[in-house]
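Hello,

Our lab assistant flagged a job as stuck in the queue for most of the afternoon. It eventually completed. Since we weren't sure the result was trustworthy after the delay, we are filing this so someone can double-check. Below is the sequence as submitted and the structure that was eventually returned. Let us know if re-running is recommended.
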Amino acid sequence: MSVTVLAEKMPVAARRGEYRGAETVAAYSDARSEFAEMVSGCAIYDLGWRVKIELTGKDRVRWLNSMVTNNIRDLAAGRGVYAFVLTPQGRIMGDLYAYNRGESLLVDTDQSQAPKLLEIFRRYIIMDKVELSNLSDKLTAIGVTGPKSPEVLRRAGFEVPQLETLQLAEFTWKGINLMLVRAESERRESYEIWLAPENIDQLWAALIKANATPVGSEALELYRIATGVPSYGRDIHDRDLPQETEQMRALSFTKGCYIGQEIVERIRSRGSVHRAFTGFLIEGSLPAPGTKLEVDGKEVGEITSAASLPLGNGERPVALGYIRKEVAASGKVLEAGQARARVTELPFAEILESANS
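-- returned structure --
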């Protein structure tokens, strides 16, 4: 397990923890107040638990397009997409973001997934002119999230361009070469700043001075669950099919052949899968991940993530998980161990608004 740059230099009062394959800051103060800052203010956080893999060579676009579920072939320079890597049987082996940087492609994934994905990639490079480079020692990132993010970035000396989701812009800040990425969040302002590890202290200090609040991985996990985003290894596993995860943004049905496409297309043509990823409002004690969901004693689903989300006047227990389509109607009440789980749409919009009030 690697240690991120920020974890190595974290303040005494902060706590370390493992997150997605790397040791990072779990909390600077407490996850409850840090989550509130992500929802209503401007939070900054370590993204050193992500890995950047560069793809070069004249066959890079065609080759990666044949490896992942989304359209790399028609990806414009400065743009990115979310995608899955599948087995030939259509099961999910990993997820990633892919960006077109003009002269190269860049794959962004969790530290926990990087060794497996690199092994898969290398196995499928046969006669292709493609070279892979792990940029972990050259490129790291800081996340910036919250409605006050543009204001904080401007105060720190950034001229924030109008970026669309998963669009990146390269520029120079105080003599440092950076990339600003508009993160995949349609509901709230969210950015990533990519830079060399040796410059991270200067940027971090400038953002703190501009009134950003540092938050740890515990708050990130609360925010992830509140926004209904599944995590590979927790909510998505190698037994799952793409359409079961409800992450249709990861799929292109016009791009041509890729590994696992036949199964994905067969599911699309037949119209459905047997189960779907969704959210649950919990009444009673918070169920642990792995808790089975039942109706009249019959198993119909499973909890994969759960959290008590902080609100202004208390907490609201919620969960993420899978449920069989025939009982997936919004408002349906299920048994979850000693608790009750009410099916609800994602994200938990009302809870996010309440936390912001």
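-- support follow-up --
The delay was a queue issue, not a problem with the job. The result is valid. The chain is about 20% helix and 35% strand. The chain has a mean pLDDT of 94.
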